[in-house]
Specification:
single chain, alpha+beta, ABC transporter transmembrane region fold, 3 domains, 6-stranded antiparallel beta sheet, 24 helices
Length: 702
Amino acid sequence: MFGDYGYMEEGKLGKPYNLRLLKRLAVYAIPYKKTISTVLFLTILIILFDLAIPYLSKIAIDRYILSTWYCLDTKRLTESGARELLHRHAHFLKKGRDGSLYYISHADMKKIDPADLYSYRSRNVIIPERFYRAGPDARAEAVPGTGDKAVREMADGSILIPYKQLMRLPEEEILKIRAGDVRGVAVVGMIFFLFLFLSFGLNYVEYYLLEFTGQHIMQDIRLALFNRMQSQAVRFFDRHPVGRLVTRVTNDIENLNEMFKSVLITLFKDIFLLTGILVVLLCLNWRMALVSFILMPFIFGLTLLFSTMAREAFRELRSTVAKINAFLQERLTGMRVIQLFVREKFQMGIFTRINHENYLAGMKQIRVFAVFMPVMELLSSLGVALIIWYGGGRVIQEQLTLGSLVAFISYIQMFFKPIRDISEKYNIMQLGMASTERIFEFMDHREEIPEPEEPRVPAKMEGHLIFDQVSFSYKEGHPILRDVSFEIRPGETVAIVGATGSGKTTLVNLVERFYDPDKGAVLLDGIDIKKLPKDWLRRRISLCMQDVFIFGGILFDNISLGRKELNMKDIEKAARMANALSYIQRLKNGFQQEISEGGSTISAGERQLLSFARALATNPRMLILDEATSSVDPETEGLIQDAISRMAAGRTTLIVAHRLSTIRNADRILVMHHGQILEHGTHEELIGLGGIYFRLNKLREN
């Protein structure tokens, strides 16, 4: 059901399923919807600032740097032609002092249809001479080097100075006359800088909020995922390797975070930016915009082709990375075996092959990017060249302003960046969606021991345990227990012995309700344990397992396991009863001694004593010891046997043992064979029978 370290095939990720996954993911984003809305709003503001910056260069060039005006003489048209000209272009024209002359700025003249411009020029309506417009406060006689005949005047009092006359003036005089343009350029520059500063600030806030939201959403999903893991039945962990589950909580969550940061928000940003650029280009000059769109089919076709090739290369790379992860995890865990049997060279050979596969997959991905990126740069350069060729000709023909051409080039260069980003993020999207599918598939997978619908608890726990015709199998068709029935009375110590695979540990698992029986019932104080709350049951039945797990951290925490109701006095009492106190007191820091993960710095016997203290800390009414002395030295075994005698006093105790010396003093001994209890009685009674227990005892003695 779940992949190992690899990633799902894209074929499983159809669009409808993607939408369902995104809807489920959106549930975790709901608590942060205000922050996400703020991020989207900031994104729009940033895009608007980015779109405005090239337009500022157009304003600076057309309005201030190349501030030229042209004169239109309507006397060269018929009366009806003049009326039509004034009617069609009245909002562009400024009336001159002479009623037959009108003036139009260089920028506004480019807004007139080229066919009309050609008609006006062919009939000499547009006078070729260029003028510079000075404000109404300027006077013709105040302009050095010009005469009244050279300078023209508008109806609003502004004067128009011929450019050829203006350029003959000294630089100081030109600066005085064009002081308004200088101020205008300075203002545009300040606005440009302000937009850059605001864009930087908004980008910082946007990135921070995006990371803040993404990390919180991932934190919530990771908590939900770990909570789901803890609620799964033990059967689930029997079938799913630890590495696979760790990958869900680490790699898959990180992939999801990357998708949220790099795709869901920035993809919106890129699409909005592309749309904005297209709109601005069409508004600037729709004819030149259509010329620039000639490359669009090639761009999108190349992007689609690249996405397909990159997806395949990326999938191969992730597959080889998964193989490396799996290989390293297994080999590092089993390094003692490798060194013991001198298999380093053999393992090195296997790793060299897997590593080379990873190298080839990485090079394949690099080749795809090495082709795509230069081709995109080439198309970007072709786009710019096309604009310069076509737009430059229009500028020469005075059908386009230089500022519009410069802005066009900036927008075309800006246009290619989101195209590249979208194609790259497509793979992140696929990876993130595959991880999202695995995460939610895991969350939907419920293999839990159900809580009782109507829970019951005994008024007082006595520890009276009954197995009533219990049958159980881990795998259908392969029964482990067959109609097992026995009773353990309150305060009684009962031992279970038998050959490996006879079903002893399975009985323990059923008592702790790690599994539910296929048939029959397990009763505690007359109540079926299926009707007992799991928390209540496991708080009152302590289990010491054969394989003791020690967590990394201080020794006190390994005994208390975070149970806040336990204080130092309780822990010391439990350690004393488990014969672990003397060992702990010999440590440099006592109960505050730091222990490595898995307890690798302490012996097996010391780990077992700590597990006894852990089990006794809450003073349970019932105690289960599963193979408590299976791998300890004789001295430690003596300590353990002494601890068991004290621990069992006054408690219902169930002991599973291979070493029969541990259970000689048990009140009763149950002998299991092939999932059934074939003998029961005291040690002396079973020896007297001369059956299975007698043979087991002989084998142990030999």
